[in-house]
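Tokens in:
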């Protein structure tokens, strides 16, 4: 570590030992200290660490050069890999893992810019809900407990009141469906947890939108304002879809494994009635054209009985099956079949390919 980093670590260590650090800082410090001891065994504990979050790195980017109010809002986004040593009993499939890809961003802004930036994040979430067909959701607005200032929450009562009022005004002005929950804020500021429900009724925390008035100050982040004075920016922690792993886990349950065409792992399968060479020669260019347009397509040109081919495609949840028999070949057509939708009839192959590409482009089923 550098001399500055060593000094910062010592300050945090003293706060933990004297009992003046918030509970979240204590937990993070203890986990980091344990990891540091493990890394010492590798011989480079003072230089290499597993990244637990993106926030400090983005703060360093902000601080890397002088900033003016004209530079704000500054939005830094990163789809980065983070590592957290979750206990074995806490691991849960894709929902909680140790190596995670965080869909993360930080927005540095002035108080005057806050309402527009915070609302833009919420509006982004609503756009995602529409894309993925999420109809049941609520924004959970988490506030602090004044009795726990300096313990669980940063001891800045005026800033707590100011930022919570700002968030509340944004939510009320936008008409977004929200509930207010006390004593669940982050230690550095109020936050929005986006709660959604899958089609089977299970509740998930899908995303978060957090206000941070404390950590930028501790990192010494400043910008030169219009009055030529240095001021600390507000920071919005934005995680639109949480971690990639958790979001995929949610989508699997949300769609019960039956993904729409644009998301399906197996979008299209081209199936010939049998292994006749003429049918295969007719089918191959269809596969090639779809593949050239980045469609996830495979084929089954085997001599396996036709019903078994269809059963396998249904079992593996292939969204669209393009069936080709002698009549289809003679008419320049393909017979379309949808997973859970059954036969859709024979159509010209150019029309079918175009409809598939359009549906994927427009994110339709």
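Residues out:
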């Amino acid at each position: 570590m550098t001399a500055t980093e060593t000094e910062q670590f010592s300050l945090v260590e003293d706060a933990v030992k004297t009992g003046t650090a918030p509970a979240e800082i204590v937990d993070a410090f203890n986990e980091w200290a344990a990891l540091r001891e493990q890394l010492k065994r590798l011989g480079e504990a003072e230089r290499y660490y597993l990244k637990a979050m993106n926030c400090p790195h983005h703060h360093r980017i902000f601080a890397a050069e002088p900033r003016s109010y004209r530079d704000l809002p500054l939005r830094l986004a990163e789809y980065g890999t983070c590592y957290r040593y979750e206990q074995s009993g806490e691991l849960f499939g894709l929902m909680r893992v140790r190596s995670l890809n965080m869909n993360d961003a930080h927005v540095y802004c002035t108080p005057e810019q806050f309402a527009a930036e915070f609302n833009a994040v919420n509006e982004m979430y609503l756009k995602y809900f529409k894309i993925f067909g999420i109809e049941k959701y609520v924004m959970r607005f988490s506030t602090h407990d004044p009795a726990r200032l300096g313990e669980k929450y940063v001891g800045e009562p005026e800033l707590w009141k100011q930022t919570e009022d700002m968030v509340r005004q944004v939510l009320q002005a936008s008409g977004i469906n929200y509930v207010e929950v006390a004593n669940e804020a982050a230690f550095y500021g109020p936050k929005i947890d986006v709660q959604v429900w899958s089609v089977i009724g299970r509740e998930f925390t899908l995303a978060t939108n957090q206000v941070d008035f404390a950590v930028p100050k501790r990192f010494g982040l400043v910008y030169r304002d219009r009055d030529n004075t240095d001021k600390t920016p507000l920071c919005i922690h934005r995680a639109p879809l949480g971690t990639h792993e958790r979001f995929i886990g949610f989508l699997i349950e949300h769609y019960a494994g039956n993904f729409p065409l644009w998301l399906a792992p197996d979008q299209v399968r081209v199936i010939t009635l049998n292994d006749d060479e003429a049918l295969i020669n007719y089918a191959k260019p269809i596969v090639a054209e779809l593949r050239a347009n980045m469609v996830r397509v495979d084929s089954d040109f085997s001599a396996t009985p036709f019903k078994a081919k269809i059963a396998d495609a249904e079992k593996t949840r292939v969204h669209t099956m393009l069936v080709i028999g002698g009549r289809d070949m003679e008419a320049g057509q393909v017979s379309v079949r949808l997973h859970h939708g059954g036969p859709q009839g024979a159509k010209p192959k150019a029309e079918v390919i175009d409809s598939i590409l359009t549906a994927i482009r427009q994110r339709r089923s």
